[in-house]
Amino acid sequence: MPDFVEVQFEPPFKLDVINEVADMGMDSVGIHVESFDPAVLAHVAPAKARTGIERYFESWERAVSLFGVGQVSTFVILGMGEDPDLTVEGDHLRFIWWDSRNDPSYSLVRPIGNDASGNVGPSLDVYTATASKALVPSTAVKLTDVMSNPNFDQFSGRTVPFGGDYLWIDSQGTRTYAAWTDWRDTVAGNDQRTPGPTKGAEVLQCRTDLGGGVFSGDTCPRDGGLDQNIYGSLTP
């Protein structure tokens, strides 16, 4: 059994279901509303809109009473046309994002991290900023001290990259901590199945040529080729 287990779910029809989750020994829960604006929610997540914002608050309150402060989370996505008065009630909002402003190969017509010859390399940093209730952002601050290459082929048998939305931020009082997926520790390598230049996307893997264009599976998956580690930092 892992040392820490979080589960994510929608507000249940019966709030006592949350008690049952706590009784199972779970440590933390995520109940993700996506937007506090009912009109936006009806457009982007109609099932959540039918649940109703009030039900989310009821579920959060029950969950906090069971799991404790700091162990109940939600996601709120900005930029979908939401009403700021329905989104921010405190002094400010803190957010983080992946940013390609430092990508040395930046282009409006090419994917992130791709140069004109099809090579890929480090291109993403994590930035943070705050916003007032009017959603006017502060100056962005870079959190990462190493730029990451999100284009490593680590999935689907080491054939495609995947970054997802693995960014997390949490606040306790005046202190805020951010965490993100990071590729700085990924070990680059060569995929024997695709001879020729690696273009910077291939990762360390160990395969045996079985003849006839057939190769074994990767026998060294724990040697760094799949390292997509979690890094974090207190925000300024």
Structure description:
By secondary structure, this protein is α+β, with helices and mostly antiparallel strands. The chain has a domain at 1-85. The protein is built from four helices and eleven strands, in the order βαβαααβββββββββ. A three-stranded parallel β-sheet has the order 1-2-3. A hairpin with a 2-residue loop joins β7 (167-172) and β8. It is globular and about 60 Å long. The protein starts with 5 loop residues before the first strand and ends with a strand. The model has no long low-confidence stretch (mean pLDDT 89).
**Percent of residues in beta strands:** 15-25%
Mean pLDDT rating: 89
- Give the helix tally: 4
Unreliable stretches, pLDDT < 50, 5 or more residues?
none
The shape is globular
- C-alpha Rg (nearest Å): 21 Å
Question: Briefly, what is this?
Answer:
By secondary structure, the chain is an alpha+beta fold.
How do the strands and helices of this protein lay out in sequence?
Elements: E1 6-8, H1 16-23, E2 28-30, H2 38-44, H3 46-51, H4 53-67, E3 72-73, E4 93-99, E5 125-131, E6 141-142, E7 167-172, E8 175-182, E9 209-211, E10 214-215, E11 229-234
Parallel strand pairs: 1-2, 2-3
Antiparallel strand pairs: 4-5, 5-6, 7-8, 8-11, 9-10
